[in-house]
UniProtKB/TrEMBL annotation, chain A:
Leader sequence segment: none
Record's subunit section: Component of the eukaryotic translation initiation factor 3 (eIF-3) complex.
Name by which UniProt lists this protein: Eukaryotic translation initiation factor 3 subunit I
Organism of provenance: Hibiscus sabdariffa (roselle)
Major localization class: cytoplasm
Family named by the database record: Belongs to the WD repeat STRAP family.
Transferase listed as a keyword: no
Pfam families hit by this protein: EIF3I (PF24805)
WD repeats: from-to residues: 6-47, 48-89, 142-183, 187-228, 284-314
Keyword hit for Transferase: no
TrEMBL record, chain B:
Subunit text: Component of the eukaryotic translation initiation factor 3 (eIF-3) complex.
Domain RRM: 209-287
Taxonomic lineage from the root: Eukaryota, Viridiplantae, Streptophyta, Embryophyta, Tracheophyta
Protein name: Eukaryotic translation initiation factor 3 subunit G
InterPro entries associated with the record: eIF3_g, eIF3g_N, eIF3G_RRM, Nucleotide-bd_a/b_plait_sf, RBD_domain_sf, RRM_dom
Intracellular or extracellular location(s): Cytoplasm
Entry's family note: Belongs to the eIF-3 subunit G family.
Amino acid sequence: MRPILMKGHERPLTFLKYNRDGDLLFSCAKDHTPTVWFADNGERLGTYRGHNGAVWTCDVSRDSMRLLTGSADQTVKLWNVQTGTQLYTFTFGSPARSVEFAIGDELAVITTDPFMELTSAIHVKRIAKDPTEQIEESMLVIKGPQGRINRAVWGPLNRTIISAGEDAVIRIWDSETGKLLRESDKESGHKKTITSLTKSADGSHFLTGSLDKSAKLWDTRTLTLIKTYGTERPVNAVAMSPLLDHVVLGGGQDASAVTTTDHRAGKFEAKFYDKILQEEIGGVKGHFGPINALAFNPDGKSFSSGGEDGYVRLHHFDPDYFNIKI
Amino acid sequence: MAIDKNEPSKLRWGELEEDDDLDFLLPPKEVVGPDENGIKKVIEYKFNDEGNKVKITTTTRVRKLAKARLSKRALERRNWEKFGDAVREDVGSRLTMVSTEEILLERPRAPGTKQEEMKVAGDSLAQLSKGGAVLMVCRTCGKKGDHWTSKCPYKDLAAPVETFVEKPAASEASVAAPGAGKGAYVPPSMRAGAERTTGSDMRRRNDENSVRVTNLSEDTREPDLHELFRPFGAVTRVYVAMDQKTGTSRGFGFVNFVNREDAQRAINKLNGYGYDNLILRVEWATPRTN
């Protein structure tokens, strides 16, 4: 396949997100300006100007009208996707690391980093349909985990919130009371910081990637460990194909560079694994730096990766991708 | 019989005999539709300026970028105006480019094949560069330090397919040699147990773009190779193996390009090229590195 290279960001990419229809791709980077691209040919549509710090995360509403972005400038901003205007700004005491709209787009879960005396926290905010009626206060604030919470997502039917972060433990909280319902098992869980988390298309299972060079697949309701995928590199980003049973891991530097594999520039690859057999199917090379973000188009026929090199690479699969057999 | 007469009337009357044959009519345009590689050929017939019938074949590659079956809302979004930094659409900004390289989903290889071979080639080349003492070089398989051409175990092959049986011996030789290079200076990055990171990265990367040229004439030297390969792209290093006793070329050499694409083009163009009374053989320095 011929990837489409999009160099709209001057700094490393942090997050990529497709909208529900799969025609827009939102990219966040450390350069303060989230950008939206057309997902078929990579043409840039626009940029959202306003943040003063690295943008760590974003999420788009189901109707692709609203965009939420979380940034290191301690704010989370709500934007009009079409015009790029800011609708609302939530201010926090520390950088915002992860945002996600709930099903129905009326709530959002936001995580903030530990900063000075503040511990990391998970905030639930109500998002009003009309931005002028938006209130600042959180509906719910959960504190508890030590260390940074890298990702918090909604569980099925918005009843739970799943969080994962630096302490390598995945926690499931009740979204109304804030009570801790479940924690992942320390023995079988990750050993190092969990960097990324992505849900399956139906929400029944989710995948976490960690700096311990592995990714694990968990059941959403019971938090049992289903599968583990191992790599030689710390995992920075994970994605699951909505169409086939594939998971993709993107990662970083070789800590152990003893056996020198081929050293062409562009060797950082997104690795594809069979979800069920846990075996590696292949890798897609091309990035000049560690891969920090991965996203699959909801139609499953293309995916994009964002790297430390500032490039977003958009890949449309060749027909023979769909016929891969182990 | 109605004959189409839009052709230029440059034909001399003597040639108007063609009137009687249907040759005067041009064969119809043929379109050989896109095959599985997307190659489409359009074959047209025309009369050129001299009045000769010429066949023009246009080969195009039809690529479907993406099946855009967009929903109604998505189609609406397609027509949105640009905002933010995209407002000033500099056509020359080229933020979005299609990659020139074809990237494949590379299936995992069994360990111990390609990766190690490349390492060996790299080390052996490094050996050569220090002008190590007696290096046995085999022209058939291009491996150094193992056997002479006449003793090549792969005599019958033009180039060996897999050489990893020999590898353990070769890699030991190459790793030992830098240390035991009879007092030859071994830079810190090359010594045993040294941490070879970026230094070797640079050279490794370069050695990936290494092209072996064989069947060189006796008089060929480095500058000649440099001149010959320079048009294809930046060349970092050229080496021609010399016979110490006679001072003539041993018939082969290596050229390292900066870019792999340049190396590929050089291989395509110069393999089989006649240079100073011999036909050159130009190929990748190791079996096709992927």
